[in-house]
Amino acid sequence: MKLRTKVAPLALGLVFAVSTARVAGAQTPPPQPAAQPATQPATQPAAQPAGQPAAQAAPAASEATFSGPVGVLLVQVKVGQESAYESLIAKLKESLAKNEKPERKAMASGWKVYKSGEPAGGNTMYVHIIDPVAPGQNYLETYKLISETFPAEVQDLYAKTKDAFVPNGLGRLNLTLVSALGGS
Questions:
Q1: Dihedral of the CA atoms 87, 161, 46, 75 (nearest 10)?
Q2: How far apart are CA 184 and CA 3, in angstroms?
Q3: What is the SS3 assignment for 122-168?
Q4: Phi and psi of 146, rounded to 5°?
Q5: Is a pLDDT exceeding 90 seen at residue 163?
Q6: Model confidence at 64, in pLDDT bands (50, 70, 90)?
Q7: Are 37 and 154 in contact (CB under 8 A)?
Q8: How far apart are CA 94 and CA 164, in angstroms?
Q9: Within 10 A of 55 (CB to CB), how many other CB atoms are there?
């Protein structure tokens, strides 16, 4: 059996440990769009969309990359906002499939998204399992990844999904295999 099918149950078990205990440095703010408004010159840093609090600035690239061979992102979405989030993930999948960059193909090849059946603090938990990790790639730049293929759609996607994320509802785990109990 492949490592991927063995990691999923372990990662889902870790969801509850991470969501109930605040692991120092594991929580990051929700992803932000990388696309710039049409009125802003491309040489300036991207502005925060209207209504976006300054405290939820995009995380540094090191906070969204993985140092281990397997990574897990935990994303809490507000109840009632699941369809908005899942449409964002569907557009991300479509974007990565159409993107010709080798690093984007590498990201897509090992990236799976699961929805937990158990609530996480009254919210819905999505578990992103990345196995294998594409080294150096930022997995929290959802809007940037989409904008590479669908630049005209990213602001509308952001407007539809920005309120779906639970503040401080993201977690990141770097996983390294200790033992494959079923064999290889």
A1: -80
A2: 8
A3: CEEEEEEEECCCCCCCCCCCHHHHHHCCCCCCHHHHHHHHCCCEEEE
A4: -70, -40
A5: yes
A6: confident
A7: no
A8: 20
A9: 7
CB 173 within 8 A of CB 72: yes
Q: Which residues of 134-166 are buried (b: 16+ CB within 10 A; e: fewer)?
A: beebbbbbbbbbbbbbbeeebbebbeebbebbb
Determine the average pLDDT of the residues in 156-170: 95
pLDDT-derived band at 63 (thresholds 50, 70, 90) equals: low
98-126 b/e with 16+ CB inside 10 Å = b? ebeeeebebbbebbebeebeeebeebbbb
Whether residue 129 contacts residue 114, with contact meaning beta carbons closer than 8 Å, is answered with yes
Residue-level pLDDT at 132: 96
pLDDT digits (tens, 9 = 90+) for 88-113: 999 999 999 999 999 999 999 999 99
